[in-house]
Amino acid sequence: MITFLRKLPWLLHRRSREENLGQELQFHLEEEAEELRRSGLREEDARWAARRELGNLTRVKEDAPAAWGWPVVPLSKPRPEKVPTGHGGFDSRATHTLGIGPGFFSTLHIPLLAGWEFDERDNSKSLPVAIVAVIEQRLRPQIFFARLCTGFAVLALAIACVGLYGTMSCNIVRRSGERCYGWCSATS
Amino acid sequence: MASKRSSRVEFLQGTLDVLILRTLLSGPQHGHAIAKRIQRTSEDLLQVETGSLYPALHRLEAQGWVTASWELSDKGKRARFYRLTPRGRKQLVAEQSQWEAFSRAMGLILNPADQEAK
Predict the structure, then answer these.
(1) Is the dihedral of CA A21, A23, A24, A25 positive or negative?
(2) Chain B residue closest to A2 (CA)?
(3) Strand B29-30 vs strand B66-72: parallel, antiparallel, or unpaired?
(4) Going by C-beta distance under 8 Å and a sequence separation of 6 or more, which residues neighbour residue A27?
């Protein structure tokens, strides 16, 4: 439950988080390029080298939700010699080329439902592989628990209202000197 | 450069968190500075990949171990600075003692001669 509550604000502010990450990566790119310029590279070379050093910006942005607790899972299993591309058995909406480092999932403590951990064989020249977020499936227990909690909270609120109403009316009865037929059997 | 790269060591699982938290102990820093500080302090042995750094920073933020805010860098550019929270400090102390214990255990196993000499 605590984990879910921690994830929730990130989900609610997803758009701003993504914008933040985009600006952050842009800043990183500029800083890297400036550092390379200072080391003697030409403007254009420095930019290119910084870009290469940073890797695939889009990929980092796409991977960021994993850091917020949303799992990302490679579909194919086990590691094939040749990975089909496009519609060859994989979800084409989520087909990417690899651009993240070895041990990515274990570093981020992301449990793999299927597929394999990235290692030295996975690089920018590797064949495309499908990575799919299975948010809804993984969140089902948390969603159920949240709904259950909401139900209990509403029930508790209703009981509290009844109790408060009872206490108030009892006090009024006491002050006005009428006989109370409620649970407290207060008399004047 | 190539030999330097090849001599770089792989991160062990969970190492990056400790490295980031320890780097932030000296004060708030942005992502690029954190990466460079780790690289410099480890004498170029450790290089934090961007693909790991930013997800890790955002994860630490989600866990409440660091906070982030947009501020101006020393060059006047807008950057996202990360700060260690009291919870992050506690986590660092816990993780650091674990690492020291692990390191001592490894030392005892890898250098049994030292122990025997004693």
Answers:
(1) positive
(2) B63
(3) unpaired
(4) B30, B31, B32, B73, B77, B78, B79, B80
Structural domains of chain B sorted by starting position, each given as residue range(s) with its CATH number in brackets: 5-110 (1.10.10.10)
Q: How many whole angstroms separate alpha carbon A72 and alpha carbon A76?
A: 13
Report the 3 state secondary structure along B76-103: CCEEEEEEECHHHHHHHHHHHHHHHHHH
B42: DSSP letter = T
d(CA B20, CA B52): 11
Mean pLDDT per 10-residue interval, chain A, length 188 residues: 60 72 84 86 78 63 56 43 36 36 63 63 61 55 86 95 90 77 55
Q: How far apart are the first and last CA of chain A?
A: 49
Written as six digits, the tokens of A6 are 């921690």
In this complex, do A27 and B32 lie within 8 Å of one another by their Cβ atoms?
yes
ipTM reported for the complex, 2 dp: 0.78
Interface test with A, best of B1, B16, B32, B60 (most A CBs within 10 A): B32
pTM, rounded to two decimals = 0.54
Q: Which residues contact A130 (CB under 8 A, 6 or more apart)?
A: A74, A75, A76, A90, A91, A94, A95, A96
